[in-house]
UniProtKB/TrEMBL annotation:
Protein known as: SWIM zinc finger domain-containing protein
Source species of the chain: Streptomyces poriferorum
PROSITE patterns, per database record: ZF_SWIM (PS50966)
Disordered: region residues: 450-469
Domain SWIM-type span(s) in chain numbering: 415-452
């Protein structure tokens, strides 16, 4: 797994202090993007939180995921959360070090008081002393939140800075894109009251071993106002892969107003991803789990089709110019502004997701604009299957036969790729193992690229011929 060193530079460490008006939570920001361009220390908010204790514990839950590895726990993981200001709300996001859990805290308009919210994306410093202070916070004293430097901090930006240098794996970046591509196909499968939420989450194991540990995929299905375990994926069931990975939600149980569970339609007995959204006063905290604890989102392959086409790349460039830090992106509006079809806009949004430029809010079934403060283009350039497919294409290894069929030569083997209903199957071992559940194999992807290239060439030749006549 390729890793690149990424340095977060903060004007000072984030802290929780006491002031005359109550407690002050100062979250320091590192370099990010705003409507005015790059900013070394952007400020997105300075006001009060409507539910101080719930917000503090929810932020800790997001930080828990950023510092965790749920697979191969002996390896270190420590990545600061990302915050996005969307004009009317703040979104805090993180990914586990193993790429299997995505966390997001949406602080909605009802959760913010006393100030306007800015626009842009950056990292925020969540250090160990701050975590300890937030854990000890009690009472109902007002909590003033500052995301970005105050006037005093601005005057000291030329002085010493707090730096954190962390290894940033490329598969972690791909995980952001894959997780939102997966959740875009989810539906609401169950909804619990506050009391049932606490009961259900407290019944789950907190570790992967020991008493109560679960081996193999666990399924639950809505039964009245609760969730009932089931031994098989019956209609309406949701997979709960590695239930101990929901441990971060324990932080907010006393403040939870309910639980909403999302997932795809069951795919036989195969485990699937799922999303678990806890409602809080003026906020939503969501954890999205990969299909298996030892399986990160980065290899799911849900974005490969969008990355394979040159047309999609051009559409994404056009759509990106129209984004304006919206908290809710309407594909129909973008289609009208860009002149593209809604389907092409959706494909462009998937591609923009691979560059960290949009996220997906499952509660509102809509994309939102954000700009991850990393060189997320590396995730596309170094995607193993995409790179392998392009290598096959450039080597002339793809021979298109009659429509929907191709022969792909890879090494000493020849693979048959067939199309049916717009989907491609292959005679390779990858297809035999996954049957499209983890995206196309490199042979099918190369075939898709070759087919598109041939279609473009034919179209160009026809146009040229017509012009000559």
């Amino acid at each position: 797994m390729t890793r690149s060193a990424h340095t977060f530079a903060y004007a000072r460490a984030s802290s929780l202090t006491v002031a005359e008006t109550g407690q002050v939570l100062g979250l320091e920001t590192a370099g990010g993007l705003t409507p005015a361009g790059a900013d070394a220390h952007p400020q997105f908010f300075a006001g009060f939180l409507s539910a101080p204790q719930a917000a503090a514990r929810a932020l800790l839950a997001v930080a828990d995921v950023a510092a965790a590895r749920y697979h191969r726990r002996s390896l270190r993981a420590s990545l600061d959360p990302v915050v996005t200001g969307n004009g009317d709300r703040l979104r805090f996001e993180s990914f586990s070090g193993c790429c299997g859990v995505y966390a997001r805290l949406d602080v909605l308009p009802d959760g913010l008081r006393g100030a306007d919210t800015g626009h842009g994306t950056t990292n925020v410093d969540v250090n160990n002393p701050l975590r300890e202070a937030l854990s000890r916070m009690g009472g109902d004293d007002p909590l003033h939140l500052r995301v970005g430097p105050d006037e005093m901090a601005v005057t000291t930006l030329d002085g010493p800075v707090v730096e954190k240098k962390v290894p940033l794996p490329e598969r972690w970046l791909r995980g952001f894109a894959e997780s939102q591509a997966v959740t875009a196909g989810f539906d609401l499968r169950g909804e619990l009251t506050a009391a049932e939420t606490a009961r259900f989450l407290r019944s789950l194991p907190r570790t992967a071993t020991g008493a109560g540990a679960v081996t193999g995929p666990l399924w639950v299905v809505a039964a009245g106002r609760t969730l009932r375990p089931t031994t098989r994926p019956v209609p309406g069931a949701v997979c709960l892969p590695g239930p101990e990975r929901l441990a971060a939600l324990q932080r907010v149980l006393r403040h939870a107003t309910g639980l909403r569970v999302y997932g795809p339609a069951p795919d036989g007995a195969h485990p699937t991803a799922s999303a678990w959204e806890v409602g809080l006063p003026g906020m939503r905290l969501t954890l999205t789990l990969s299909p298996e604890p030892d399986r990160g989102f980065s290899g799911e392959g849900g974005v490969l089709e969008a990355l394979a086409g040159d047309e999609t790349a051009q559409d994404a460039d056009l759509v990106s110019v129209l984004l304006a830090w919206e908290p809710r992106i309407d594909p129909a509006d973008l289609a009208e502004q860009s002149g593209l079809t809604v389907d092409r806009v959706r494909a462009a949004l998937v591609r923009l997701g691979t560059a960290g430029r949009v996220g997906y809010d499952i509660a509102e079934a809509a994309y939102f604009h954000r700009e991850l403060p990393y060189d997320a283009r590396q995730a596309e350039r170094h995607n193993p299957r995409l790179v392998a497919a392009r290598t096959l294409l450039e080597a002339g290894a793809v021979t298109l036969e009659h429509p929907g069929t191709a022969v792909v030569v890879s090494g000493e083997r020849r693979y048959q790729v067939r199309g049916s209903g717009g989907a491609l199957s292959c005679t390779c071992q990858w297809w035999a193992d996954y049957r499209g559940r983890r995206g196309p194999c490199k042979h099918a992807l190369a075939t898709r690229m070759a087919t598109r290239a041939a279609g473009t060439s034919t179209s160009t030749a026809t146009t040229t011929s017509g012009a000559t006549r």
